[in-house]
Amino acid sequence: MKFAGRGTVRIAPPDSLRFDYAGPFNWGSGAAVVIGDSVLWADPEKNFRSLVPAIPMLWASLAMVRPPTDDANVLGTQIVDSLTHQRRVVWRFAQAEDTLDYVVTDSAGRESMLEAEWRRRGKLVARSRAKLDALQRPASARVDFPEGPARFELTVGMVDTAAVISPAVWRNPH
């Protein structure tokens, strides 16, 4: 099955977002508020969980890396290719069952991206790739869930950095 739709994401840095979405003819519409790696509320819960089964991948698709949990082992490195002037920064957040890998590729004069991979007990859960615009904001993203198999794709149509988010946005409408 394949569905398309439209959505709006409001982000209150560093850790909060509201995600509103609607499929064709408002089929499969809903909303959710995410704080950190937790869903504060989702309406309807089932629709949101099927659309976004992995919160760390949602953040990565929006070109944001959430800080590691307190119990995570954190590894990182930076690699610079002197011929292509491509710089890659790599982080690994390893916990008892979960491992999150992030790679930021910054190419001089070319498209930058944030790639993420989530493994649970060594098995791939999700993989994402967010392409960034010239201001290092998300332009488009794709998250693949091989178990499903499923895919979540987004294209950013507009960014409004001056928006003031009303407190009512964070409350569940029901």
Shape: globular
Beta-strand share of residues: over 45%
Count of strand segments: 11
Radius of gyration: 17 Å
The structure class reads: mainly beta
Global mean pLDDT: 87
* Uncertain ranges: none
In short:
This protein is mostly beta strands and 174 residues long. The protein is 8% helix and 50% strand. The chain contains two helices and eleven strands, in the order ββββααβββββββ.
How would the blueprint of this fold be written?
Layout: E1 6-12, E2 16-22, E3 30-35, E4 38-43, H1 45-51, H2 55-61, E5 73-81, E6 86-94, E7 98-107, E8 112-120, E9 123-132, E10 138-145, E11 150-155
Antiparallel strand pairs: 1-2, 2-3, 3-4, 5-6, 6-7, 7-8, 8-9, 9-10, 10-11
Describe this structure in words.
This protein has 174 residues and is mostly beta strands. It has one domain. The protein contains two helices and eleven strands. The strands form two sheets. A seven-stranded antiparallel β-sheet has the order 5-6-7-8-9-10-11, covered by helices on one side. The mean pLDDT is 87.
